[in-house]
Write a structure and sequence with these properties.
Layout: E1 4-5, H1 8-18, E2 22-27, H2 32-41, H3 45-51, E3 55-60, H4 67-76, E4 83-87, E5 99-100, H5 105-113
Parallel strand pairs: 1-3, 2-3
Antiparallel strand pairs: 2-4, 4-5
């Protein structure tokens, strides 16, 4: 299984300290494509193996009116779910790698392998 951190600040701190890229997965209970990510993409053994190179952060956006959720959506320019944002080792968002919508395991693996 993928080892998730459920707090953005804590995840980014771990990324800084370990020199790893952070992956932030914005998801919600009501999001069907988010559940597909969990069921198919994040359950794939190769994706799980590759994910160990990163700090994996999951942000529950089920309560989209929560001020903390709203603040994170604004910070990362989230317009829909699922959205996966990659944060470089230097703390900046790798915009061109942002994923919006469901991505099958093989495609997601290519994205992960393209990140150094």
């Amino acid at each position: 299984k993928i080892d998730w951190v459920y707090d953005e600040e804590e995840g980014l701190r771990q990324g800084r300290e370990s020199g790893k890229i952070a992956i932030i997965d914005f998801w919600a209970e009501w999001c069907a494509a988010c559940k597909e990510f969990d069921k198919f993409t994040y359950a794939d053994p190769e994706v799980i193996r590759e994910s160990r190179r990163f700090v994996n952060i999951k942000i529950d956006s089920t309560k989209s009116d929560d001020p903390k959720v709203k603040q994170l959506w604004e910070k990362y320019h989230i317009i829909g779910l699922p959205t996966i944002v990659f944060i470089g080792k230097d703390g900046t968002v790798i915009r061109e790698k942002t994923v919006a919508g469901f991505v099958p395991a093989k495609e997601f693996l290519q994205i992960l392998r393209g990140l150094e």
